[in-house]
Amino acid sequence: MRTLALGSDTLHLTVRPIAPDYPPLPYGLTLNQAVAVHAHQVKAGDLVLAAFSGKSGTRHAEHVPTPYPADPHALRDCPCEGCEECDDVDTWTLGDHGRVADVGWRFVCLAPSERGEGGEGDEPCAIELRNRPVAVIPADAVAAAEEAARPPVRTYGVMWSADFEASSPQEAAQLAYEQLKSYATDGWPPELEVMDESGRVTVIDLNATQQAEGNR
């Protein structure tokens, strides 16, 4: 458990639950990189991990099952075009028109609803009280971890060979070129030799690779 401070509040960031609904943090990130801010201070790209209980003083974390990258919006600018959370807000304000302005300064949308197939929302908007403490990993730390998690890019030499009956090297090269183009349509994918920077050669049978992907 980590203890974070925000103003006069003491925030207890407990260990994330271990359950199927609570996957590990992405890119090797850890709770040690988390900071506490008020919801209205969350910046685009920050990874939202948890919110803290509403009572002032000592507060305990309510972990987000799947942490999400923030895309903050004022409620009036929310691009979700209607979701469960926004509908609840609309219902609440319709009951008392005096609440409309209240919503604008009391709440913030940290991430608009994600739309699935058919335009239905997979997740509703993440709406929080503007001053509610939340735990986030800052966007720059997330970007650095994502970059470090990417496989390194190396230079590879790819060699392909085939036999053609031709009257000249130029004709043989043209025949090879035509065959290569056919692989993009209905041709039989070739077997390639791929050499890395150390000189190690790996034989890649593209036909076997495509068959394996088709069987998944």
Short description:
By secondary structure, this protein is of the alpha+beta class. The protein is 25% helix and 30% strand. The two termini are 41 Å apart.
Characterise this structure.
The chain is α+β, with helices and mostly antiparallel strands. It has five helices and 13 strands. The chain has helices at residues 84-94, 99-106, 139-149, 169-182, 206-214, and strands spanning 2-6, 9-13, 35-38, 47-52, 58-69, 107-111, 114-115, 121-123, 126-129, 133-137, 157-159, 191-195, 201-205. The strands form four sheets. Strands 1-2-5-4-10-3 form a six-stranded mixed β-sheet. The protein is elongated, with a radius of gyration of 27 Å.
What topology does this entry show?
Blueprint: E1 2-6, E2 9-13, E3 35-38, E4 47-52, E5 58-69, H1 84-94, H2 99-106, E6 107-111, E7 114-115, E8 121-123, E9 126-129, E10 133-137, H3 139-149, E11 157-159, H4 169-182, E12 191-195, E13 201-205, H5 206-214
Parallel strand pairs: 2-5
Antiparallel strand pairs: 1-2, 3-10, 4-5, 4-10, 6-9, 7-8, 11-12, 12-13
